[in-house]
Amino acid sequence: MNDAPIVTRIAPSPTGFMHVGTARTALFNWLYARGRGGKFLLRVEDTDRARSTPEATEAILKGLRWLGLDWDGDAVSQADRAERHAEVARAMVESGAAYRCFATQDEIETFRETAKAEGRSTLYRSPWRDSAPGEHPDAPYVIRVKAPLEGETVIADAVQGDVRFRNDQLDDMVLLRSDGSPTYMLAVVVDDHDMGVTHVIRGDDHLNNAARQGLIYDAMGWPRPVYAHIPLIHGEDGKKLSKRHGATGVEEYAAMGYPAEAMRNYLARLGWSHGDDEVFTTEQALEWFDLGGIGRSPARLDFKKLDNVSGQHIAMMETDALLTAIAAWRSAAGLQALTEDEREALSRAMPLVKDRAKKLPDLIEKAHFALTTRPLEIEPKALKALDTVSLGILSELTPQLQNASWDRDTLEAVAGRIAEAHGLGLGKVAAPLRAALAGRTATPSVFDMMVVLGREETLARIGEAVETASRQETTEN
């Protein structure tokens, strides 16, 4: 098996949103396969017909697409393969690795209650385990695996090491229900085998399942896959991640405005490490990722770290990539798409704002000066900077700006000379300029804004601000 091409899979149940833990498991599987030229498959475990919905399936597909985790071939529906699962169960009966059990639910429940009252093990041992076909009644039955009664089962796990299970603690689990439908434990093994899965990378809440599922592999003479059971994700308080810790669904992170690139980086680092590297590209993750770097302790979701990673990715991303990410965020958040004019304005402003943003909405907020249109709404606090003295300075500055070279250094020099002539610091000129250009007190550098806005728009905004402030002053007097 070691020489075979790597095949991994993600097998979510479509019973709700795509959990961030499922997303991380999918990422680990994708990185491991893609980084080794292997295949990454998607199987939708939709056997629970009562809870599985098309909407939940679509949420899974949407979450994987947003994260950029492409899969090979079509998504496989587990429910569509029920007859194949049943075929394997029947083959196990024929080989003696499984048996028909005619015990009723009432009989099983009575056994367990009695065993509990007497302080004995409640692990059910069916009286039909070694019965001959001639003894079988004409009644409904389930098919159970014939688990070994002595010795131990060892799971060689790439993350957890060798994990041992006493065989007398393994039950004769049901493979096929009395209505002929397969159980999850049977279906997952048959599907993994038939899909050629070589590595099963999943949460360590499935570790006990590996011992029981191994019985099916062995009974059918199939090679077991390499197992890698990864610790679950906990909240910052060390408890299992739940709604009380904040967002648990992938779509929530998309709607909050984290770029997919940053989310991939953060999730990869959540339980896996490569030296001290915290921020890395997807290309680096594909090159570095291995099972040996996965820790055995639960990882803790930390929004401050996520914000930090997100901010560094935004700073590294090219403008076109950021515009694409912004479009994905606005769609996920149910917001209107940016117009072509807004995209153009945001493009021009991007170099000024991307180094200070933690999430994609921050870019829109910080680029407000470029996205807003005249007449500007000037915030009360900013309006205070447009006093009589400041209006005089802006009026004096305007003709000098009309003939200046339109680059940052020249514009700053022009403003500096005006400030010096009035015995003022540059900040005293920058404050009213900021109010005039953006209508706010917190913005990028005024000279950078002037370059982005251009000469015509800059002068028009200054002119309007002078008029607005003058009108207000006249009204107040």
Automatic annotation (TrEMBL):
This is Glutamate--tRNA ligase. Belongs to the class-I aminoacyl-tRNA synthetase family. Glutamate--tRNA ligase type 1 subfamily. Residues 339-465 form the Aminoacyl-tRNA synthetase class I anticodon-binding domain. Its EC number is 6.1.1.17. A motif ('HIGH' region) lies at residues 12-22. GO terms for molecular function: ATP binding; glutamate-tRNA ligase activity; tRNA binding; zinc ion binding. It catalyses: tRNA(Glu) + L-glutamate + ATP = L-glutamyl-tRNA(Glu) + AMP + diphosphate. SUPFAM superfamilies: An anticodon-binding domain of class I aminoacyl-tRNA synthetases (SSF48163), Nucleotidylyl transferase (SSF52374).
